[in-house]
Design a protein that fits this description.
Elements (H helix, E strand, L loop, with lengths): L5 E2 L3 H38 L4 H37 L1 E2 L10 E2 L1 E2 L1 H35 L2
Antiparallel strand pairs: 1-3, 2-4
Length: 145
């Protein structure tokens, strides 16, 4: 019977991941509260001049596209980097990667396949970003009439 290699959990990594999750939750929560508070003023601004309403909706769509695209681009960059490290090391999690729980180390062809899948997810994120901006600029003339 073959023993599997296990990367032991790092308590600091667990604590760090909980801190990141808490900060992300707070950012989303504060954004939702701010949107709820400023929605009437934003709506009044958009509809205040009928001739400019389409352009103002377009500006709001640009802001929304930025809010979605920037974190998605960061995720795509991280996933591409992580996938590359997995492929280079032919092991997942790659050497030096801290884990939040005891994790079996996968080596060889299966690790490389997972690394390629991770890079594929990064590519899907990038395609989603490009699609958002393509559609925004495709429909821009219709919005600014």
């Amino acid at each position: 019977m073959k023993m599997k290699d296990i990367r032991r959990a790092d308590p600091d990594a667990r604590r760090r991941s909980m801190q990141i999750a808490a900060v992300a939750f707070l950012v989303v929560f504060v954004t939702m509260i701010a949107f709820k508070k400023y929605y009437p003023a934003l709506s009044d601004w958009i509809l205040s001049e009928q001739a400019e309403a389409g352009k103002r909706v377009g500006y709001m769509l640009i802001v929304l596209a930025l809010i979605v695209s920037v974190p998605l681009a960061g995720l795509a960059a991280y996933l591409r980097s992580f996938g590359s490290r997995v492929i280079r090391a032919e092991e997942i999690p790659p050497p030096g990667q801290k884990v939040t729980r005891d994790t079996v180390i996968i080596r060889g062809r299966h690790a490389v396949i997972r690394g390629r899948l991770i890079q594929g997810i990064a590519l899907v994120c990038l395609i989603a970003i490009l699609t958002i901006w393509f559609l925004l600029f495709w429909f821009w003339p219709a919005l600014t009439c």
